[in-house]
Write a structure and sequence with these properties.
By secondary structure, the protein is an all-alpha fold. It has 4 helices and no strands. It has one domain.
Amino acid sequence: MFEDLLITVKVNISVIRAIIKTNDRLRQISFGASALIKKEWNEDTELILGTLMQDIPKVIEWRVYDHCAVVTRLYAIYERFVEDLVSD
């Protein structure tokens, strides 16, 4: 049973890592390295990214939200792990 709990925690943490990496890449595209990517853009890409850019928060606000979400989610994962461990 303990192994099942550990696998669940590891899967949840790997999802968090993937989300962090994805958001970091999106921030790089939005605020940084977009000049490198523009070479591969077409009209559809410009329309999609233009629409997306209208709703993107400032980089600092985005990072703060990400950090808060990650800390909250990690707390929930470990809290659930401890509760399941104690109940077993």
